[in-house]
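Intended use. Records like the one below are meant for learning the mapping from a protein sequence to its folded structure. Do not use them to infer anything beyond what is encoded.
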Amino acid sequence: MANYRIGKNRIYYQPSNFQSAIIEAYFYSPKGIKSDTYSFIELEDGIYYSDVFFDDLGDYLGVFFEDGEKKSSLVFKVDEKRFSLFWEGEPLM
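Structure written out for the chain above:
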C-alpha cells in the first residue's frame, strides 16, 4: 500500500515484463465511487505514469489494464490533506 495526499498525485506503473502496452486504470474512492478512466503515458523502457486526483481521505482501489486486459489492482492510502497549485497540469496562479 502506498501513501498519498488529497490533490494531484503522480502514479507510476510497470506492465508485465516491462513490455510496451496501452495502460489504463480507474480508481474506486473510499465511498465506492468509480472514477473516469485514466490513460497512462510511457516515461521510458516500459515505465508508465499518470496524474491522478484523489479528493477524499481513505483507501482508494486502483484497477489496472494492459491492452484492455485487467492485470492488477493496488490500494492507495490517502492520509493527509495537501493543497495543490496545479490541476491537470495548468497552474492556478
